[in-house]
Structures are given as C-alpha cells and as structure tokens.
Amino acid sequence: MKKAVKITDGIFRLGSNIENGDFFEGMWPIPDGVSLNSYIVKGDKIALIDLVDDWDNAPSDLKEQLESIPVDPSEIDYLILNHLEPDHTGWLEDFLKAAPSVELVTNKKGAALIEGFYGITDNVKVIDSGDTIDLGQGKNLEFHNIPNVHWPETMITFEKNSGVLFSCDAFGSYGSIGDSVFDDEISEEEHNLFDVESLRYYANIVGSFSKFVLRAIDKLSDFDIKVIAPSHGIIWRDNPGEIIERYRKFASYLEGPAEEEITVIWGSMYGNTEKVLHSVIKGIRSEGVPVHVHKVPEVNVSWPLASAWKSKGLVFGMPTYEYKMFPPIAAVLNMFSLKHVQNKTVFRFGSYGWSGGAQKDFDAATADMKWDFIDPVEWKGKASEEVHQLAFERGAELARSIKNQ
C-alpha cells in the first residue's frame, strides 16, 4: 500500500507520479515524470488541499494514501482548491461521489471555474484573502490570493501554527518523487535534476507571469514559512528559502539581467546553414561565454525555451523557406512571444536559394519582443570563407556585447 507522508503532526502529503509518457499541459515533455501533490490537514475537522486529475492512476494512489492515515473521503470536511487547472481538479466529480457533503473552498474566480469546468455550484464556500478556517486542535488555515501564478484564481493556503505553506503551482518543478519527498532527504544528483527541471517548469508554465510571481514573493515576506509544500515537486522543509530565491531569480530574467550565456537555436534543410553554425559557435566560445545549442524540429521547444529564458544572448540559425522563415524556427519564435522571452541581444544567420525572405519575416515576428539586434549574416547557397569569417566575428561580437551589459 502506498502510504501518506507525515510532514508534521496532523499534516500529510499524498502524492502520485505521472510517468506514462504523456505531455504536461498536452505539450511539455516530462521524461522524468511529474508529481501531483495533495495534502491532508487534520484537526477536529479534516481538510484536503488540492486534488488530482484522473491521470495515470493518480486517484487510486490518492485513495490508498488516504487509507494509510486513515481517512475515509466521507470524513473530509473541506476540499481546498488553490487552483482550478484540471491537473489539480480533474477527478473532482468522481471524488464528490465518495465525499458528497464535502465543502469546496476557493475564491470568487475559482468558484466561477468550478461551475465552468464541472457545473458545480452547491457546497462552494467562497473566501477572500485573509480569511481563515479553524479546523480545531491548533490547525488554522489562512488563505491568500496570488493571482496569475499562474491562473487568475490562484491562491495559497497557509497553516500558521506549523508554518506550512501550501503553494500550489508556485515553487513547483517537473520530476517524479520517490520515497524521499523532502529537500533534506534527496541526493545531490536528485537536487541537480530538480534544479534543472524547476527552471524548465518555470519557463514553460509560469514565466509569462513573472511580474505576478515577484509580487507574490514580496507578499510572502511577512509569513513565517517553515515548510513549502507545492503541488509539483519536492517539499522544502530544511531550506524553503532556496526555492523562493530560485523563483525570484527566474522571475527577474523577464526584465533582466539574465545569465551571461548564449542560447543558439537552429535548423537547416540541406546543411548550408549548419556549416556556418559551427563558425558562429567558435566565435562565441572565443570570448569564453557558455553556449547552449538546440536543433529544431528535433528538440521540443520546452528545452530551448528554458535555456533562452535564462540567457542574455540568443542566436537563430535558419534558411529561407518559401520566402519566409524556416517553419520550425517560426514556431519557436511564436512560443517565445507567447511566453514573453524579452530583453535579449540577438543575432540571426542563414542561407537562401532563389531569393531571401527569412530576415524580413524574422524582423516582423520579433518587432514587439524588446530585443536588441546585431547585424545578421545571409548568403546565397553555399557559404564562402568570407561568410564563415563574418559569422565567427558576429558570434564573438554577440558574446562581447552580453559581457558588457
């Protein structure tokens, strides 16, 4: 039987890993899985904080862990819904069959989403920032809205006496959780994985809302937080400040400064652009600047998005395709625009055949992205030695420019 994990007296983590190869939000690869975390807070009354989707056996995992405490769903008085995205609520209708009298607790915008997604209006308790629910036996839940981290209705739940913050998507990460769920229990290798995957999760899921993330972090400065219990990823009880500061850094990349690194995203039809790619990379490395290289469409945009989010400099290498940009690069730029990848210094290079067109298309697609550009390099057909030398110099120029920012 899968057992619930005790966080402190009367507070337990219930978790399930999604490892079936599905994409998160239907588009983000999760090769190392992702955890769905729910929590039980037991006083005289019982609250379940956040639910799961009917996804990869998650409801069965949750039911088994409830039995281990033991708590029968019918005994649960409150279901706290910090966020209505279906990975936290998709199992709601079936759960209510086992817990028909449970009161759903959310804010005004959350209540509208409960009705919109599930047609449910009964037994919904609407709360506002600062409201509390006393469960008895020293368990008192306090609610605070943190809008747009990452949907407008998102809120957090804080149990003051224990200092446990149930932060929902805030401070989360991709990556499955094994038997060890706390930051002080996992290995250095696992910490490295969650370090990398928290950035990719942030860039993919939360990055667009970075201004709201910073507001939420400022709001939390008044809280005496001892444990951060997110809906995805490990629980931070030894050093909760680490994940808070990591998220503050990620959010700061929106306006800059970002890291002194360059992300190269490229695609090539017949190899003429690819050959010049190597000259550009040599130029960047001649200045000692770290460079991250992603080839599309072979790699999902999830990884270049995370890499670009933290880099000061970007390079796009692509040929002209039917008078426009190489389509896989156009798709990347569309996602970067959606996710607000802003305040970068950018260089573009690429070949063309009968005529150009990619640069004009690139200029139009990036006009509103708050990017600074250095002069592009384009050539017809096979690149000459002069083109290779110019590409090397442009790579070095980009590297020098981000070092001087």
Automatic annotation (TrEMBL):
SUPFAM superfamilies: Flavoproteins (SSF52218), Metallo-hydrolase/oxidoreductase (SSF56281). Residues 262-405 form the Flavodoxin-like domain. Pfam families: Flavodoxin_1 (PF00258), ODP (PF19583). Gene3D superfamilies: 3.40.50.360, Ribonuclease Z/Hydroxyacylglutathione hydrolase-like. GO terms for molecular function: electron transfer activity; FMN binding; metal ion binding; oxidoreductase activity. It comes from the Bacteria. PROSITE patterns: FLAVODOXIN_LIKE. InterPro entries: Flavodoxin/NO_synth, Flavoprotein-like_sf, Metallo-B-lactamas, ODP_dom, RibonucZ/Hydroxyglut_hydro, Rubredoxin-O_OxRdtase. In the N-terminal section; belongs to the zinc metallo-hydrolase group 3 family. PANTHER family: ANAEROBIC NITRIC OXIDE REDUCTASE FLAVORUBREDOXIN. This is Flavorubredoxin.
